[in-house]
Amino acid sequence: DGGITQSPKYLFRKEGQNVTLSCEQNLNHDAMYWYRQDPGQGLRLIYYSQIVNDFQKGDIAEGYSVSREKKESFPLTVTSAQKNPTAFYLCASSIWQGGKNIQYFGAGTRLSVL
Amino acid sequence: AQKVTQAQTEISVVEKEDVTLDCVYETRDTTYYLFWYKQPPSGELVFLIRRNSFDEQNEISGRYSWNFQKSTSSFNFTITASQVVDSAVYFCALGKGGATNKLIFGTGTLLAVQP
Q1: Which of A41, A96, B19, B100 is surrounded by the fewest CB atoms within 10 Å?
Q2: Does B61 contact A at CB distance below 8 Å?
Q3: What is the mean pLDDT of chain A?
Q4: Quick one: A36 exposed, middle or buried, by C-beta within 10 A (0-12, 13-18, 19+)?
């Protein structure tokens, strides 16, 4: 089945540790996105990528890093510089086709700090 | 600046009641797109509808309907004869469109449908 797969579903980070969240899509979508969701808040954009080997910062990129070496994959690293990493992280992908561009989302990764 | 406001934080209804979720947006763009997503307890956001700024025609899909009014910058969502399965957080979002459709999300409305 085509879709967006995020792993792991739950992740725990120790103080000072970097952790990487995986996002893979087999929809042949060009663009991919990472959002952060905190309780009672909407989704906020962390990073996005339009094509392979290119990505741009979103509204809250500090403390995060990404890579886009393959079209299908857009991993997010939460670095030790991110002081409040506990949140729900959602990955999305989209394609500009027929004048439409709709983002489709994965099931998310819930990150907690030990 | 672009902004989306969903003033209703939580709504509770009894099954079979109709319910309207409000969405008000701000943008200076003449071309823009509005979206509604559903987030069930599982967490994944499910796409419901996309509307562009040039199309003010209301849309109906089964028990769901959307009312887009540019004059009041609103894009409201109505569920008719609500069901327990409609219980979720609903997000309204605004985008500029184009090859990379960066979205601005509202804070969401938690809808609880009681049996």
Answers
A1: A41
A2: no
A3: 93
A4: buried
